[in-house]
Amino acid sequence: MLRFSSILVSTVFLFVAVFGQNQHVLSQMMQEEELLPDSLRSIIQDWHHLPEATISAVGLAAGAEGVDEVPGALHIIRPEALQRFSYSDPLRALQSVSGVNIQEEDGYGLRPNIGLRGSGSERSARITLMEDGVLIAPAPYTAPAAYYFPSIARMESIEILKGSSQIAFGPQTSGGAINLVTPSIPDSSLAGFFRTEMSSFGGRVDHGRVGTSWKHRLGTFGVMVEYLALGSDGFKTLPSGNPTGFSKSDRLMKLSWKAPLEAKIQQSIEWKGGQVTENSFETYVGLSDADYAMSPLQRYAASAQDQMLATQQQNVLKHRVQLGVNWSVETDVYATQFQRNWYKLDRVIDSTGVTHGLAGLFEHGADLDAFNLLKNPDTPNGAGLDLKANNRAYYSEGIQHRGVFKFGSKSGASHQVVYGTRWHRDGVERLQWRDRYILQSGTMTMTNPGSLGSAGNREEMATAWASFVRGTIRTGIFTWTPGVRMERMEFERWDYSGSDPDRIGESDYRRNKLSVWLPGLGLHANLSPVWTAFTGLHRGFIPPGSSPETKEETSANWELGLRWNSNGFSGQLVAFRNAYEDLLGADLAASGGTGSGDLFNGGSALTKGLEVEAAFNAMHYRWEKWSLPIQASYTWTDARFSAGFESDFDAWGSVVRGDALPYLAPHQGSIIASLVGPKIALNTSFRYVGAMRTIAGQGDLISSQSTDIAKVLDVAFSWSVKPGIQFDLGMNNVLDATYIVARRPAGIRPGMPRFMRTGLRLMF
Questions:
Q1: Within a 10 A sphere around the Cβ of 4, how many other Cβ atoms?
Q2: Are strands 508-526 and 478-495 parallel, antiparallel or unpaired?
């Protein structure tokens, strides 16, 4: 067993790099006034730096005065970068960040699969997801799989924290954390914008936001409202002509109050309330190799009724107070609810009465007659198609408190302590059923409705108390950030009979209680005005769920990085190594399982890799009104099982020591270049994602057990017609590349084809 302390010895690994940061990405391009040369430096403002405006806000850097106080590699995607391509797909928005593992699924990013540093990407369940510093997964402890993900289109920025001393954010602390930051209430009397967009495949976006603040003798009051509606008819086609797209709407409101400047106690209160509705015609049914080769964007007739209906509500009350010159605190009270019913094809029954699971229909040697039930226009006598109503309700609620206390020393150095505590409770309720259908002349017809609860009738709940403390100690050129996190949690589950939807009878009950301590240490060194180095070590953790027989997953995570900072050129190089014990897998329908959601252990694994980021302005010191910022990133990841074992999880199967983990691209990278003038901007983005295994293994890739290499070029053009009016034109996948992004949950899933959009943005 790899001991936590042994990783510290591995910091003898050395490497060299050239890179850094610094820049504004031209939010002023929409103004007619001339741009000053010193405002055109790099591709993103303060890529590896934390300006005061950032650290004073909620987020992964809260409490820090500079990058040296943030353990681990922090990356911030700012508003200018998000607006450059106006992506509504979170996977495309994250593609420029090294160390982020993504696996596409539906082409629109409705239910993204995101991992960090080889943590695993299934439904983003192995990273901590937050919105404005508050846990946002449907049930972060009980059911963290992100069947809900906030709309990227309404975010102001995205914060990604990877690696060492990631103890302040949990419960999933192995890979890292992603915080989605919503816009603040404007300080001005009235400010806002409206954006409308039309795109290929019947796509549309309508997005508006307006807010204001006003001063009163009792303080400063503020209000902001926002509305976002987006959707598409879908880029896939059904024989019946049924829709394959989606529609989604977000409504958000913020109210705030801030104490007057003359008040003895400086404090503020903010309430945020939001509601999201979604209607998407998505399926878990993919394509066979032969059908994909013939028509990659087709869907089988048996998936025509597949549909998800979902709603999400959130309420957050935030209180900030300055208790003295050196002590500030923040408290959040939050509650979220998420309800969804994903009604989709689950299995087929052949004419002899044999039941075939959906994933099994696409395996080598599968029953051809059973497979053909997916697309035959008429279902034979005795056969049928079972659609399962995955009807579930989630909740997440709690109160969290965080404080920052600063103090000095005899040498004049500034130190601080950041601490936090959180009480949290979440849960999920399943009340599911299956309906029997047949195809008649290509039309789905119900023949036997199911009974409520017959395909899943249970409740799960988790209660957790988490606390952390992290210090900042400066000694000369070094900044030390030691810390520790404590989690105490209790999981409970009640399984009821499928014939007891009212839950008045006995249930099978199980409970699991555990406590963990998660230490971490970060070290930052200012080697020179240009060079900085950082390293860190922390213990990672993934909760084990309600089964007492399942062990929690732990990991020893280490990183070593260098940064280069100059006016014209910047970058970062990081090496990382994560050693996992009692690796956890989840029986998710999204990964080809039965959908029970049960967790199980899968031995040990070792993930190591290298992250490279660089940015520079090719026209630095040459043109006063034009810039050519270029940003490049590359990630190499080697993730392998370090012990053999047998698993019922299809993607793992019979594992041999040295097998590579599935759905982790060994090579991925991106290049973003922007030609920017006083009124126009031309942006290009090229991303490369290497072929990934879809089943654990080693040696040469087998085409039937891997995805394709993805080479995708996006282009976006914007023109500031006059102050406050901007015209946008863009094209995703310019070369119309055809590629396989996954072979799960069942069959091949294609990437999105060429996609054009045009829009208008009004700002005031």
A1: 17
A2: antiparallel
Question: Do residues 630 and 671 make contact, with C-beta atoms less than 8 angstroms apart?
Answer: yes
Helix (H) or strand (E) holding 66: none
In this predicted structure, the answer to whether residue 414 has a pLDDT above a threshold of 80 is no
Residue spans of beta strands (DSSP E) within 548-677:
553-565, 569-581, 584-586, 599-601, 605-617, 629-641, 645-646, 654-655, 667-676
Find out whether 617 and 597 touch, Cβ atoms under 8 Å: no
pLDDT band at 174 (very low <50, low <70, confident <90, very high): confident
Spatial distance between the Cα atoms of 749 and 742, rounded to a whole number of angstroms: 5
Q: Beta 203-216 vs 433-440: how paired, if at all?
A: unpaired
Residue with more model confidence, 599 or 183:
183
> Percent of the chain scored above 70 by pLDDT?
88
Distance, in Å, from the CA atom of 413 to the CA atom of 69, rounded to the nearest integer, reads 13
pTM: predicted TM-score of the whole model, two decimal places: 0.90
On the question of pLDDT at 60 being above 90, the answer is: no
What tokens does 379 get? 């279902």
Q: Within a 10 A sphere around the Cβ of 507, how many other Cβ atoms? A: 15
Whether the Cβ atoms of residue 674 and residue 77 lie closer than 8 Å to each other: no
Which one-letter amino acid corresponds to residue 151? S
CA 25 to chain CA centroid, Å, is 24
The total number of residues shown for the chain amounts to 764
In Å, how far from its chain's centre is CA 24?
25
Integer Cα distance of 131 and 393 in angstroms: 20
296: left (phi over 0), alpha (psi -120 to 50) or beta: alpha
Across the range 302-312, mean pLDDT stands at: 97
Q: How far apart are CA 191 and CA 184, in angstroms?
A: 11
DSSP state letters, 14-46? -------------GGGGSSSPPPGGG--SSSTT
Unique residue bearing structure tokens 């596409």: 104
Q: How confident is the model at residue 409 (pLDDT cuts 50, 70, 90)?
A: low
* Ramachandran area for residue 357 (φ above 0: left; ψ -120 to 50: alpha; else beta): beta
Contact between 447 and 437 under an 8 Å Cβ cutoff? The reply is: yes
Please list the alpha-helical segments (H only) found in 251-367.
Answer: 289-294
Question: Is 186 buried (19+), middle (13-18) or exposed (0-12) by CB count in 10 A?
Answer: middle
- Integer Cα distance of 376 and 301 in angstroms: 8
* Pair 516, 552: CB distance under 8 Å: yes
673 class by beta-carbon count within 10 Å (0-12 exposed, 13-18 middle, 19+ buried)? middle
* Distance between CA atoms of residues 26 and 585, nearest Å: 44
Q: How far apart are CA 331 and CA 523, in angstroms?
A: 28
Paired strand residues for 731: 715, 756
CA atoms of 604 and 582, how far apart (whole Å): 6
Instruction: Match 């300055």 to its residue by tokens.
Output: 322
Q: Cα–Cα distance between 370 and 376 in angstroms, integer? A: 10
Query: Which amino acid, residue 261?
Result: L
Among 180-189, 191-200, 270-279, 451-460, the least confident range: 180-189
Residue 80 is inside which H or E element, if any?
helix 79-85
Is residue 468 a contact partner of residue 485, using CB atoms and an 8 Å limit?
yes
Q: Which of 377, 385, 304, 379 lies closest to 349, judged by CA?
A: 385
For the four alpha carbons of 77, 611, 161 and 413, in that order, the dihedral sign comes to negative
Tokens read off for 330: 């923040």
Largest CA distance in the chain: 87
Instruction: Please give the Cα distance from 507 to 521 (Å, whole number).
Output: 45
Q: Contact 727/30 with Cβ under 8 angstroms?
A: no
In the chain, the domains with their CATH numbers are 19-377+389-763 (2.40.170.20)
Q: Say what the pLDDT of residue 598 is.
A: 73
Question: Closest by alpha carbon to 521, among 536, 532, 505, 508?
Answer: 536
Strand partners, 644: none
